[in-house]
Design goal:
The protein has ten helices and 14 strands.
Amino acid sequence: MSELRKFLFQGLPVRGMLVRLTDGWQEVLRRRTASGTEDEYPEAVLHLLGEMTAAALLMQSNIKFNGALVLQVFGDGPVKLAVVEVQPDLSFRATAKVVGEVPPEATLSQMVNVRNQGRCVVTLDPRDRLPGQQPYQGIISLWDDTGRPIDHFADVLQHYMLQSEQLDTTLVLAANDQLAAGLLIQRLPVQGEGNLSAKATAADEDQIGRNEDYARIAILASSLKQSELLELDGPTVLRRLFWEENRVEFEPLVGDEAPRFACNCSTERVRRMIHSLGIDEARDIVREQGQIEVSCDFCGLAYRFDAIDTEQIFVDTAPGSNALQ
Ligand SMILES: [Zn+2]
Protein backbone atom coordinates (compact mmCIF):
# COMPACT_ATOMS: atom_id res chain seq x y z
CA MET A 1 0.00 0.00 0.00
CA SER A 2 1.03 3.60 -0.51
CA GLU A 3 2.65 5.41 2.39
CA LEU A 4 4.45 8.59 3.38
CA ARG A 5 6.86 8.64 6.30
CA LYS A 6 8.31 11.79 7.88
CA PHE A 7 11.21 11.75 10.31
CA LEU A 8 13.75 13.90 12.10
CA PHE A 9 17.17 13.20 13.49
CA GLN A 10 17.26 13.82 17.24
CA GLY A 11 19.02 17.10 17.99
CA LEU A 12 20.11 17.66 14.38
CA PRO A 13 18.73 20.25 11.93
CA VAL A 14 17.89 17.60 9.38
CA ARG A 15 14.51 16.27 8.32
CA GLY A 16 13.53 13.52 5.96
CA MET A 17 10.62 12.01 4.11
CA LEU A 18 10.03 8.75 2.31
CA VAL A 19 7.13 8.25 -0.07
CA ARG A 20 6.06 4.98 -1.71
CA LEU A 21 3.16 5.00 -4.16
CA THR A 22 1.78 1.61 -5.09
CA ASP A 23 -1.97 1.49 -5.81
CA GLY A 24 -2.23 5.19 -6.70
CA TRP A 25 0.65 4.97 -9.16
CA GLN A 26 -0.66 1.75 -10.69
CA GLU A 27 -3.99 3.52 -11.15
CA VAL A 28 -2.26 6.32 -13.11
CA LEU A 29 -0.83 3.69 -15.46
CA ARG A 30 -4.09 1.73 -15.71
CA ARG A 31 -6.02 4.89 -16.63
CA ARG A 32 -3.51 5.62 -19.37
CA THR A 33 -4.59 2.62 -21.42
CA ALA A 34 -8.14 2.11 -20.11
CA SER A 35 -9.83 4.01 -22.94
CA GLY A 36 -7.88 2.10 -25.59
CA THR A 37 -6.79 5.26 -27.37
CA GLU A 38 -3.34 5.60 -25.78
CA ASP A 39 -0.38 3.20 -25.71
CA GLU A 40 1.46 2.31 -22.53
CA TYR A 41 4.21 4.74 -21.59
CA PRO A 42 7.62 3.88 -23.00
CA GLU A 43 9.86 2.61 -20.18
CA ALA A 44 11.96 5.76 -19.84
CA VAL A 45 8.84 7.97 -19.77
CA LEU A 46 7.26 5.75 -17.12
CA HIS A 47 10.40 6.19 -14.99
CA LEU A 48 10.35 9.97 -15.48
CA LEU A 49 6.64 10.39 -14.73
CA GLY A 50 6.88 8.14 -11.66
CA GLU A 51 9.88 10.06 -10.35
CA MET A 52 8.08 13.36 -10.95
CA THR A 53 5.02 12.02 -9.11
CA ALA A 54 7.05 10.93 -6.08
CA ALA A 55 8.92 14.26 -6.14
CA ALA A 56 5.74 16.37 -6.36
CA LEU A 57 4.31 14.53 -3.34
CA LEU A 58 7.50 15.13 -1.37
CA MET A 59 7.42 18.83 -2.31
CA GLN A 60 3.75 19.22 -1.36
CA SER A 61 4.24 17.46 1.99
CA ASN A 62 7.33 19.54 2.61
CA ILE A 63 5.68 22.94 2.17
CA LYS A 64 2.09 21.93 3.12
CA PHE A 65 0.65 24.29 0.53
CA ASN A 66 -3.10 25.00 0.74
CA GLY A 67 -3.78 24.52 -2.94
CA ALA A 68 -2.62 22.50 -5.91
CA LEU A 69 1.09 21.96 -6.50
CA VAL A 70 1.67 21.31 -10.20
CA LEU A 71 5.00 20.07 -11.53
CA GLN A 72 5.33 20.28 -15.31
CA VAL A 73 7.98 19.57 -17.89
CA PHE A 74 7.44 21.00 -21.36
CA GLY A 75 9.75 19.04 -23.62
CA ASP A 76 11.25 19.69 -27.05
CA GLY A 77 12.00 15.99 -27.63
CA PRO A 78 9.65 12.99 -27.86
CA VAL A 79 8.14 13.87 -24.47
CA LYS A 80 6.10 17.01 -25.14
CA LEU A 81 4.59 17.29 -21.69
CA ALA A 82 4.79 15.53 -18.35
CA VAL A 83 2.60 16.86 -15.57
CA VAL A 84 1.79 15.93 -11.98
CA GLU A 85 -0.74 17.70 -9.77
CA VAL A 86 -0.90 17.15 -5.99
CA GLN A 87 -3.69 18.49 -3.77
CA PRO A 88 -3.27 19.44 -0.09
CA ASP A 89 -4.83 16.11 0.95
CA LEU A 90 -2.09 14.37 -1.10
CA SER A 91 -4.45 13.11 -3.77
CA PHE A 92 -2.64 13.27 -7.09
CA ARG A 93 -2.95 12.78 -10.84
CA ALA A 94 -0.31 12.58 -13.55
CA THR A 95 -0.04 12.26 -17.30
CA ALA A 96 2.46 12.60 -20.14
CA LYS A 97 2.20 13.32 -23.85
CA VAL A 98 4.63 11.35 -25.98
CA VAL A 99 5.19 11.70 -29.73
CA GLY A 100 7.48 9.22 -31.45
CA GLU A 101 9.97 6.67 -30.18
CA VAL A 102 11.73 6.87 -26.81
CA PRO A 103 14.71 4.49 -26.34
CA PRO A 104 14.48 2.49 -23.09
CA GLU A 105 17.68 4.05 -21.71
CA ALA A 106 16.85 7.62 -22.78
CA THR A 107 18.12 10.30 -20.40
CA LEU A 108 16.08 13.27 -19.26
CA SER A 109 17.80 15.50 -21.85
CA GLN A 110 17.13 13.03 -24.64
CA MET A 111 13.43 13.04 -23.74
CA VAL A 112 12.70 16.70 -23.03
CA ASN A 113 15.73 18.87 -23.77
CA VAL A 114 17.03 17.84 -27.18
CA ARG A 115 17.42 21.37 -28.54
CA ASN A 116 17.85 23.09 -25.17
CA GLN A 117 14.26 24.33 -25.34
CA GLY A 118 12.91 22.13 -22.52
CA ARG A 119 11.27 23.87 -19.58
CA CYS A 120 10.34 22.72 -16.10
CA VAL A 121 7.89 24.73 -14.01
CA VAL A 122 6.39 24.36 -10.54
CA THR A 123 3.07 26.11 -9.98
CA LEU A 124 1.39 26.76 -6.63
CA ASP A 125 -2.26 27.49 -7.21
CA PRO A 126 -3.94 28.64 -3.96
CA ARG A 127 -7.24 27.01 -3.11
CA ASP A 128 -8.90 30.32 -2.25
CA ARG A 129 -7.46 32.41 -5.04
CA LEU A 130 -8.72 35.99 -5.04
CA PRO A 131 -10.11 37.43 -8.28
CA GLY A 132 -7.18 38.55 -10.40
CA GLN A 133 -4.62 36.80 -8.23
CA GLN A 134 -2.14 34.76 -10.28
CA PRO A 135 -0.80 31.42 -9.13
CA TYR A 136 2.87 31.41 -8.12
CA GLN A 137 5.19 29.95 -10.77
CA GLY A 138 8.81 28.98 -10.32
CA ILE A 139 11.11 28.08 -13.19
CA ILE A 140 13.18 24.98 -12.50
CA SER A 141 16.36 24.93 -14.53
CA LEU A 142 17.16 21.83 -16.58
CA TRP A 143 20.81 22.98 -16.67
CA ASP A 144 23.46 22.98 -13.98
CA ASP A 145 25.50 26.04 -12.96
CA THR A 146 28.00 25.42 -15.77
CA GLY A 147 25.20 25.36 -18.36
CA ARG A 148 25.23 21.62 -18.96
CA PRO A 149 21.89 19.80 -19.29
CA ILE A 150 21.03 17.68 -16.22
CA ASP A 151 20.28 14.06 -17.07
CA HIS A 152 18.36 12.90 -13.98
CA PHE A 153 15.19 14.42 -12.62
CA ALA A 154 16.30 14.06 -8.96
CA ASP A 155 19.37 16.19 -9.75
CA VAL A 156 17.17 18.83 -11.40
CA LEU A 157 15.14 19.25 -8.21
CA GLN A 158 18.12 19.08 -5.86
CA HIS A 159 19.67 21.92 -7.82
CA TYR A 160 16.39 23.88 -7.75
CA MET A 161 15.88 23.55 -4.00
CA LEU A 162 19.39 24.71 -3.28
CA GLN A 163 18.95 27.70 -5.61
CA SER A 164 15.42 28.72 -4.61
CA GLU A 165 15.19 27.89 -0.92
CA GLN A 166 18.89 27.88 -0.13
CA LEU A 167 18.26 24.51 1.42
CA ASP A 168 20.63 21.62 0.97
CA THR A 169 18.51 18.74 -0.27
CA THR A 170 19.29 15.17 -1.15
CA LEU A 171 16.78 13.31 -3.30
CA VAL A 172 16.63 9.74 -4.49
CA LEU A 173 13.76 8.94 -6.87
CA ALA A 174 12.81 5.73 -8.65
CA ALA A 175 9.84 4.19 -10.42
CA ASN A 176 8.75 1.04 -12.21
CA ASP A 177 5.32 -0.17 -13.31
CA GLN A 178 4.37 -1.13 -9.75
CA LEU A 179 5.86 1.59 -7.59
CA ALA A 180 6.93 5.23 -7.62
CA ALA A 181 9.11 6.14 -4.65
CA GLY A 182 11.25 8.92 -3.30
CA LEU A 183 13.52 9.76 -0.38
CA LEU A 184 14.14 13.39 0.59
CA ILE A 185 16.64 14.63 3.14
CA GLN A 186 16.81 18.32 3.86
CA ARG A 187 18.90 20.54 6.07
CA LEU A 188 16.56 22.67 8.17
CA PRO A 189 17.14 26.40 8.18
CA VAL A 190 18.83 27.37 11.45
CA GLN A 191 17.30 30.36 13.18
CA GLY A 192 19.24 33.56 12.54
CA GLU A 193 21.35 31.90 9.88
CA GLY A 194 22.82 34.47 7.52
CA ASN A 195 23.10 37.09 10.26
CA LEU A 196 26.01 35.28 11.75
CA SER A 197 28.47 35.83 8.98
CA ALA A 198 29.73 39.21 10.22
CA LYS A 199 30.47 37.97 13.72
CA ALA A 200 32.86 35.17 14.45
CA THR A 201 31.11 33.64 17.41
CA ALA A 202 30.63 30.29 19.03
CA ALA A 203 27.54 30.03 16.83
CA ASP A 204 29.81 29.66 13.79
CA GLU A 205 31.38 26.60 15.27
CA ASP A 206 27.94 25.23 16.01
CA GLN A 207 27.10 25.86 12.41
CA ILE A 208 30.09 23.91 11.19
CA GLY A 209 29.06 20.99 13.38
CA ARG A 210 25.52 21.11 11.99
CA ASN A 211 26.80 21.14 8.42
CA GLU A 212 28.84 18.06 9.18
CA ASP A 213 25.76 16.35 10.57
CA TYR A 214 23.84 17.13 7.40
CA ALA A 215 26.73 16.07 5.18
CA ARG A 216 26.99 12.71 6.95
CA ILE A 217 23.25 11.99 6.64
CA ALA A 218 23.20 13.20 3.03
CA ILE A 219 26.00 10.79 2.13
CA LEU A 220 24.06 7.94 3.75
CA ALA A 221 20.89 8.94 1.87
CA SER A 222 22.60 9.23 -1.50
CA SER A 223 24.11 5.77 -1.06
CA LEU A 224 20.57 4.41 -1.54
CA LYS A 225 20.35 2.71 -4.92
CA GLN A 226 17.22 3.06 -7.05
CA SER A 227 16.87 -0.74 -7.04
CA GLU A 228 16.89 -0.78 -3.22
CA LEU A 229 14.28 1.97 -3.06
CA LEU A 230 12.06 -0.10 -5.35
CA GLU A 231 12.62 -3.49 -3.75
CA LEU A 232 12.71 -2.84 0.00
CA ASP A 233 9.77 -1.77 2.16
CA GLY A 234 9.81 1.67 3.78
CA PRO A 235 10.91 0.76 7.31
CA THR A 236 13.70 -1.45 5.93
CA VAL A 237 15.04 1.33 3.68
CA LEU A 238 15.22 3.75 6.60
CA ARG A 239 16.64 1.23 9.07
CA ARG A 240 19.40 0.13 6.70
CA LEU A 241 20.42 3.68 5.79
CA PHE A 242 20.25 5.33 9.20
CA TRP A 243 20.72 2.52 11.73
CA GLU A 244 23.49 4.44 13.48
CA GLU A 245 21.49 7.67 13.69
CA ASN A 246 18.98 8.64 16.36
CA ARG A 247 15.93 8.94 14.15
CA VAL A 248 12.51 10.12 15.33
CA GLU A 249 9.69 8.95 13.08
CA PHE A 250 6.25 10.54 12.96
CA GLU A 251 3.06 8.54 12.56
CA PRO A 252 3.20 7.40 8.91
CA LEU A 253 0.44 8.42 6.50
CA VAL A 254 -1.03 5.10 5.39
CA GLY A 255 -4.45 3.76 4.41
CA ASP A 256 -7.01 6.54 3.98
CA GLU A 257 -4.41 9.21 4.75
CA ALA A 258 -1.85 7.92 2.25
CA PRO A 259 -1.29 9.68 -1.07
CA ARG A 260 -3.81 8.37 -3.62
CA PHE A 261 -4.93 8.83 -7.19
CA ALA A 262 -7.86 11.18 -7.75
CA CYS A 263 -8.92 13.23 -10.75
CA ASN A 264 -10.87 16.44 -10.31
CA CYS A 265 -12.10 16.77 -13.87
CA SER A 266 -15.84 17.51 -14.20
CA THR A 267 -18.60 18.11 -16.72
CA GLU A 268 -18.64 21.76 -15.65
CA ARG A 269 -14.96 22.20 -16.55
CA VAL A 270 -15.44 20.62 -19.97
CA ARG A 271 -18.49 22.81 -20.57
CA ARG A 272 -16.39 25.88 -19.77
CA MET A 273 -13.74 24.65 -22.20
CA ILE A 274 -16.27 24.17 -25.01
CA HIS A 275 -17.76 27.55 -24.20
CA SER A 276 -14.35 29.15 -24.66
CA LEU A 277 -14.22 27.74 -28.22
CA GLY A 278 -17.20 29.90 -29.18
CA ILE A 279 -20.56 28.79 -30.54
CA ASP A 280 -19.51 28.71 -34.21
CA GLU A 281 -16.57 26.38 -33.72
CA ALA A 282 -18.56 24.18 -31.33
CA ARG A 283 -21.35 23.84 -33.93
CA ASP A 284 -18.77 23.04 -36.64
CA ILE A 285 -17.42 20.14 -34.58
CA VAL A 286 -20.93 18.79 -33.97
CA ARG A 287 -21.69 19.07 -37.68
CA GLU A 288 -18.52 17.19 -38.65
CA GLN A 289 -18.41 14.57 -35.91
CA GLY A 290 -22.00 14.31 -34.73
CA GLN A 291 -20.99 15.31 -31.21
CA ILE A 292 -18.18 16.85 -29.20
CA GLU A 293 -16.14 14.28 -27.33
CA VAL A 294 -13.48 15.32 -24.83
CA SER A 295 -11.40 12.76 -22.94
CA CYS A 296 -9.61 13.66 -19.72
CA ASP A 297 -5.86 13.10 -20.17
CA PHE A 298 -5.47 12.26 -16.49
CA CYS A 299 -8.21 9.71 -15.86
CA GLY A 300 -9.44 8.74 -19.34
CA LEU A 301 -13.04 9.69 -18.64
CA ALA A 302 -14.85 10.68 -21.85
CA TYR A 303 -17.29 13.57 -21.86
CA ARG A 304 -19.74 13.66 -24.77
CA PHE A 305 -21.98 16.50 -25.89
CA ASP A 306 -24.52 15.99 -28.68
CA ALA A 307 -26.07 18.86 -30.66
CA ILE A 308 -28.64 19.63 -27.96
CA ASP A 309 -26.11 19.49 -25.10
CA THR A 310 -23.82 21.79 -27.06
CA GLU A 311 -26.54 24.38 -27.71
CA GLN A 312 -27.43 24.20 -24.03
CA ILE A 313 -23.88 25.24 -23.03
CA PHE A 314 -24.36 28.54 -24.82
CA VAL A 315 -27.98 29.00 -23.72
CA ASP A 316 -26.88 28.60 -20.10
CA THR A 317 -24.42 31.45 -20.49
CA ALA A 318 -26.79 33.83 -22.24
CA PRO A 319 -26.99 37.29 -20.64
CA GLY A 320 -28.80 37.09 -17.34
CA SER A 321 -27.69 33.53 -16.69
CA ASN A 322 -24.81 32.74 -14.36
CA ALA A 323 -24.78 28.98 -14.73
CA LEU A 324 -21.13 28.82 -15.73
CA GLN A 325 -19.73 31.46 -13.45
ZN1 LIG B 1 -10.17 13.24 -15.20
